[in-house]
Amino acid sequence: MNSHSVLNRTLLAVAGLVMLGGGLLVLVGALDLYRRWSLDPPADWPLTGPHDTLVPAADRTRWTDEAWWWPTVIAALTILIALALWWLVAQLRHQHPGRLPVGNPPCDGVELHDSALADALAADTARLPGVHKARVNLTGHPDHPHATFDLTLDPDAHPRDVLPALEGTLHRACRSTGWEQLPARATLRVASHRPHRAE
Q1: Which residue in 1, 55, 73, 103 has a CA-CA distance of 20 to 30 Å to 176?
Q2: Which UniProt keywords apply (predicted)?
């Protein structure tokens, strides 16, 4: 798992735990469970009964008559929305390595475009026995690319036979580029087929 995925999962986990905890505290207060179950609410927690509000009316209206209040609220919400949109775009954008160095050590002026290597890997993989269709995508940094294989197998193919052959494809790619290794991940699915009718 790369650092980008770790950061995303960590942020999502923290945000989820905060929302879950806050939601449970609001639910317990709204259902009046503190009184029913003789529980002590958290210190300074405003929602201890069904008629309480998270922010008291005095706090909600304290600065509404000030000239700076509404521009500040609008600016803060705009920044929050912009950060959320930036994060969303970052998730949708795949990081492609672009031009890849060839050789070990890399040869000056000799580079390989990531799409060319992906096409070569897909063509080599599609010729393997049992593979109906193959697509390959390269991601990561140019010095440390990662290959993602999306394979559609023939209905009668077995993954245990395809995966060792896929290692041969990766070995040939490393030998051709002069790399020591090419980390890869494969997703396997079976091609749809019509059921055979027994006579």
Answers
A1: 1
A2: Membrane, Plasmid, Transmembrane, Transmembrane helix
Tokens coding 148: 């993602």
Amino acid 14: pLDDT: 92
Residue position matching structure tokens 């798992």:
1
Nearest residue to 102 (alpha-carbon basis) of 84, 114, 89: 114
What are the residues facing 189 on neighbouring strands?
A: 152
Distance between CA 186 and CA 49 in Å, rounded? 53
Distance of CA 196 to the CA centre of its chain: 39
Rounded Cα distance between 189 and 63, Å, is 59
* 8 A C-beta contact, residue 101 and residue 127: no
pTM above the 0.85 mark? no
pLDDT digits over 102-144, tens only?
887 777 778 888 889 999 999 999 999 999 999 999 988 888 8
